[in-house]
Amino acid sequence: MSDTPSDLARAVEATLFAAEEPMSADQISAHLEGADVREVLRELAEHYEGRGIALVERGRRWQFQTASDLAHLLRREKEQLRRLSRAATEVLAIVAYHEPVSRAEIEAIRGVQTSSGTLDVLMEAGWVRAAGRREVPGRPVIYATTPEFLSHFGLKTRRDLPGIDELKAAGLLDPVDDAFDDMMEQQAAETEAPEADDDSGQSDETPDFVDDTETLENPE
């Protein structure tokens, strides 16, 4: 390939760069008014040899990827974006507006049983943590949000928790369930401007639970 790429080569590069997943030659061609892109793909692959990124063909689909000999420089934990299920969204909202809260209390607010898997998803995402145990018979585990939850949703403290309209506008709620809307509005009203002594959004009041998170997260 010459030092000055052709318009077609530039168009192929742009198409692949913007693609969310690998594309076949036919798919690329369809984006470019039926142009024959096979030779251009081979030339581009040769052009990128030895660079920090490479154009590779995998299963007849083309994609840009990090050069294999540099992968160790970029190896890190990746946050996987996922859309929460309806149940997980409800549980996350309840924890955020009522923390610290036990699973039984979550179920009482939702009116339905909450599977342990739902809480596991939220804890795996790093948005909910085990915050200790309630000082009542059975000493149930209670849950609270994390600093990562505040960071992910752009909140300084829990006082910045959005109302129902803001949640819908952000695409975090499916605006079809009036009952859940009413529940969220009630939660927002009950939690309006909670007092917090730091950016974690925790109340100044002494809750009726013992914070033994270290014991929970590191059982002997």
Structure characterization notes:
The chain is α+β, with helices and mostly antiparallel strands and 220 residues long. It has 2 domains: 7-74, Winged helix-like DNA-binding domain superfamily/Winged helix DNA-binding domain (Arc Repressor Mutant, subunit A, Orthogonal Bundle); 86-217, Orthogonal Bundle (Arc Repressor Mutant, subunit A), CATH 1.10.10.10. Helix content is 42%, strand content 13%. The chain has 11 helices and 6 strands. It has helices at 7-18, 25-31, 38-47, 71-74, 86-98, 103-110, 116-124, 147-152, 164-169, 178-190, 213-217; strands spanning 53-58, 61-66, 101-102, 128-134, 141-145, 209-210. The strands form 2 sheets. A 4-stranded antiparallel sheet has the order 3-5-4-6. Strand 4 and strand 5 form a beta hairpin. The longest helix is centred in the middle third of the chain and has 13 residues, at 86-98. The chain is elongated and about 75 Å long.
Write the SSE topology.
Elements: H1 7-18, H2 25-31, H3 38-47, E1 53-58, E2 61-66, H4 71-74, H5 86-98, E3 101-102, H6 103-110, H7 116-124, E4 128-134, E5 141-145, H8 147-152, H9 164-169, H10 178-190, E6 209-210, H11 213-217
Antiparallel strand pairs: 1-2, 3-5, 4-5, 4-6
Helix pairs in contact: 5-7, 5-10
CATH domain class of the largest domain: Mainly Alpha
What fraction of residues sit in β-strands?
5-15%
- Which residues form runs of ≥5 with pLDDT under 50? 77-81, 174-179, 193-220
**Secondary-structure element series:** HHHEEHHEHHEEHHHEH
Q: What is the CATH superfamily label of the largest domain?
A: Winged helix-like DNA-binding domain superfamily/Winged helix DNA-binding domain
Computed over alpha carbons, the radius of gyration is 25 Å
Overall shape: it is elongated
Please report the distance between the alpha carbons of the first and last residues.
62 Å
Q: Treating each run of at least 4 consecutive H or I residues as one helix, how many helices?
A: 11
Q: What is the structural class?
A: alpha+beta
- The count of domains is 2
User: Average pLDDT value?
Assistant: 75
Side-by-side strand order of the widest sheet: 3-5-4-6
Q: What's the architecture of the largest domain in CATH terms?
A: Orthogonal Bundle
CATH topology of the largest domain: Arc Repressor Mutant, subunit A
| Major sheet | 4 strands, antiparallel
Number of strands: 6
Q: Percentage of helical residues? A: 40-55%
